[in-house]
Amino acid sequence: MSTELQPREGMMAVVRNRRAMITDVQPYDAAEHGRFHLVEVDYTDGLGQECIDAAAADRDAGIRAFAAQNGGDGWLLPETLRLADHDLGHDDRARQPQPAASALGPRFLDWQLAPTPEESWAECERHAKALLEGMPAPAVTSGPKAQAPPPPLRTPMDEEA
């Protein structure tokens, strides 16, 4: 008999650094690899779900509400958090609010704020075109390692125009 703890409904789990509750478990026998379990979870950390719930399960309205939080900045790291609220740490310090956002430094660095929104979107478009065409990403045009921008990329849509 295995001493491993098998997943079962009602157990708590951490999935991709998010707290969740196991809601369903289906065993899957994989021949020589043994038994695996298909596990369904409901996230319990509330990241975004409360916005969808408040929008009467209208996913798109919930996403808009989530993005509108904090003056339109969307979800942000909290200024403080208690480690014990996330099952981290078991001492007195874990039960006291600890700095979170401020411990990571400023939200934006000066070089990130230097370009205009138009320049920033143009750089995003250059990267997107490069990815779509399978080319290397264009040179960085702002920040401490800025280089001259590459020539404009031509796409099949450009040739049709």
Q: Explain this structure to me?
A:
The protein is of the alpha+beta class. Among the domains are: 12-43, no CATH class; 77-107, no CATH class; 110-154, no CATH class. Helix content is 29%, strand content 18%. The protein has five helices and five strands; from the N terminus they run βββααββααα. The chain has helices at residues 49-54, 59-72, 110-113, 117-133, 156-160; strands at residues 12-15, 18-29, 35-43, 80-81, 98-99. Strands 1-2-3 form a three-stranded antiparallel β-sheet, with no helix packed on it. The longest helix is centred in the last third of the chain and has 17 residues, at 117-133. It is extended and about 55 Å long.
Q: What spatial form do the alpha-carbon principal axes imply?
A: extended
Element order: H for helix, E for strand: EEEHHEEHHH
The average pLDDT value, as a whole number, equals: 76
Distance between the termini: 69 Å
Assess the beta-strand content as a share of residues.
15-25%
Work out the helicity level: 25-40%
* Content-based structural category: alpha+beta
Sheet with most strands? 3 strands, antiparallel
Uncertain spans, ≥5 residues at pLDDT below 50?
none
| Count of runs of 4 or more consecutive helical residues | 5
Please provide the count of β strands.
5
Radius of gyration: 23 Å
In what order do the strands lie side by side in the largest sheet?
A: 1-2-3
